[in-house]
Each structure stands twice: as C-alpha cells, then as structure tokens.
Write a structure and sequence with these properties.
This protein is of the alpha/beta class. Helices cover 33% and strands 14% of the residues. The strands form three sheets. Strands 4-5-6-7-8 form a five-stranded parallel beta sheet. It has a three-stranded antiparallel beta sheet with strand order 1-2-3. Strands 9-10 form a two-stranded parallel ribbon. Strand 1 and strand 2 form a beta hairpin. Helix 5 crosses helix 6. The longest helix has 19 residues.
C-alpha cells in the first residue's frame, strides 16, 4: 500500500493510533499501556461491568454531530430546513432524550421505534414515519399518535393511509418518496436510488 494514499486507506504514522474516521473524538489509547478509553472510561472496565458485545455511545460526540448537522443545514438553507435523526441507526430512551434536548427531529421506521419515542415523551409532531412496506397496523399507530409526517412510497400505501386517516378524521401530512434514477457504485442490495428497486415512485416513469 502506498504511503501517498489518503482517507480511509491511509497508513497511519503510528499503527497503534486510533483512526479518527472510525473512533469518536473522545477516544484515546494510552501510549504507556495501550488501553483504550472513551472520555476517560476504560473500555476494559465497561466490558467487565456490562459484558460484551456492548454498544458504547459517546454522548458528547453525538450531541456535537447534531450541532454540526443543524449548523450546516441552517447555513445552506437560510434556516429553512428540518433535520431528522434516523432511528434505524440506533435508538433507545437515552438517545431520544438527547435528540429532544438538542432540538432535532426523529425519523422512525417501525412500530417499536415509534413506541420508544412516544414512551420517552418525544413530541409526535416532530416524528416522521418512514420505511418500506409499512404494515397497516404501523400506519394506524402513526396516525393515531399524531406523527408530523408519513413518508409514502407506493399507491397501495397511499390508499391504506387515506383509509386510516379518514376513519380517524385526520388530515395526515405526507412526504412522497421518489426514485431519482441515480446509479450509485455500491452493492445492489443496498442501492436505493436507481430505477429498478423497491423504494419510491419513479420520476422518469411518472
């Protein structure tokens, strides 16, 4: 591997250094012992207390990144943008509280994620219900909870949502997911914008 390579493929000067594009800013490795810590918390002690595997979230970095996203969108849109955290990345009651305190909205794609948000006290109008192939039960729970937006991506889903909203005497605000026909150089199983896939309405096909 060439030493001139940069980014994710760069060879660090210190092979024991923590790669900054992988580890949070608060992570460090002791040069004396080689022990990794996150904001002073020894990961060995975390493993002993909580066992492994375990998810360790850096709250400081989480909140900082929210601030960066909000600032970037505010500058790019003159403050006319709503930023949503995708619950599919990871969601628990603590994360929901952080989102609420930082003033960011929440994108959920399952009834379970919606339930976690509501039980933690997150305001329904700041929730967006996303997800491909949402069940009728999930759509009903979203409407009855009063979520701000439901993302629709098929005529069949629009019909089901209209029926549910009518039964509840609710005018449900929606976003329409479209397929823009962009071919990304990635694995076909995770590509979401090209024409021949299951997400959204095709712009070219109407």
């Amino acid at each position: 591997m060439s030493s001139s390579e940069s980014g994710a493929f760069a060879v660090p000067a210190d092979l024991n250094a923590l790669a900054p594009h992988i580890w949070p800013a608060g992570a460090a490795r002791s040069t004396a012992t080689g022990v990794v810590s996150v904001h002073g918390h020894d990961v060995r002690e975390l493993a002993r207390e909580f066992h492994t595997p375990a998810y360790v979230l850096d709250e400081v970095e989480f909140r900082d990144r929210i601030g960066q996203w909000k600032s970037a969108f505010a500058q790019a849109t003159d403050g006319n943008a709503d930023v949503y955290y995708a619950g599919k990345a990871f969601l628990c009651s603590a994360v929901v509280r952080w989102l609420d305190e930082e003033g960011i909205n929440l994108d959920v794609c399952t009834a379970g994620e919606l339930a976690v948000a509501l039980r933690t006290g997150f305001e329904p109008h700041r929730i967006l219900m996303h997800g491909n192939n949402k069940s009728t039960s999930e759509l009903r729970q979203a409407v009855e909870a009063g979520v701000g937006l439901v993302v629709v991506d098929s005529f069949e889903e629009i019909a089901r949502l209209a029926h549910i909203a009518g039964e509840s005497d609710v005018v449900q605000s929606v976003l329409v997911r479209v397929t823009v026909g962009v071919e990304a150089h990635t694995h076909e199983f995770i590509a979401t914008a090209h024409e021949d896939q299951k997400f959204g309405f095709s712009l070219s096909g109407g």
